[in-house]
Fold this sequence. Notes:
It is a single chain. By secondary structure, this protein is α/β, with parallel strands linked by helices. It has twelve helices and eleven strands. The protein has helices at about 30-40, 60-65, 85-95, 110-115, 125-140, 160-170, 190-200, 215-225, 240-250, 260-300, 305-315, 320-330; strands spanning about 10, 15, 20, 45, 50, 75-80, 100-105, 145-150, 175, 205-210, 230. Helix 3 packs parallel to helix 5. The termini are far apart.
Amino acid sequence: MPSTWGDPLRIGNVEIENRLILAPMAGITDRPFRSLCRRLGAGLAVSEMLSANPALRGSRKSRERADHRGEPGPIAVQIAGSDPAWMAEAARASVDQGAEIIDINLGCPAKKVCKVAAGSALLRDEPLVARILAAVVNAVPVPVTLKTRTGWSPETRNLRRIAKIAKESGIAMLAVHGRTRACGYSGLAEFDSLRALRAETDLPLVANGDIDSPERARWVLGYTGADAVMIGRAAQGRPWLFREISHYLATGERLPPPTPAWVCATLLGHLDALYDLYGTARGPRIARKHIGWYLRGQWPGDDPCRNEILARINRAETTQRQTELVRSLFDGLRPLEDAA
Length: 340
């Protein structure tokens, strides 16, 4: 593990307070979730990706994803696309709206992203990657970072060449998910590629993939020599993972697990923030997945009781009913009832 892990991390001219980063996740890392993870120990929270397509810039989804009101800085915005000019313009627009770091998506494996030659599909066209990186870096006065995978497939891993292009283009930090695009999220993330890259470059490196515990975070930092870790799916329903990792790295000891009462209060606060952003009609529907993730942490495995409770919560159509059911679940003051 790097001896400097406890120090602030510099990304270009921006300093973040620690080396724990929330990964950008489409449909998940919205303002409420980013703010919550920051409050619970993440040093940086990257927004869900914004499409560089000018035709989508004024859409409701894009407006909501670009909403950073009241969010603690530094503000990091991820953009996705395959046209260098569009990517440059998206970066400039994001900086005009308050972005202090621009992140380029070179890692999303989703079919709808790859079919337009964006995300991890770009890994098959290194000259285009170079043009995109140069266009974005030259377009904005803030640091530009890059999130990538180890290659398009296990047979065509090209992380070393992508990292060389990133370094030459002026990229300020490289985050690597230890899978190829073909792997999706199956199997185990591998970190040999990042370990080998660490021996070749002084570019700030971030390790991402299957980091789901304090012990795993410490092992990954030590094995790869990475400057930071990026956490995605493991923080779903468990945003306090960041402070658990921070405490463990500092002391070698685990924090006691949060009490049900504390988890309930955290979840209810999260729900209020979702209702505020998305409104009382859409808010409860968007909140369902988050509630499911919190419940998964309280009742691991395929627990019939959890599934029944979640089904009842999912039938709630109002914010009041949804929060009533969540409170009932955690405080045990009265039995759960089917939504009217």
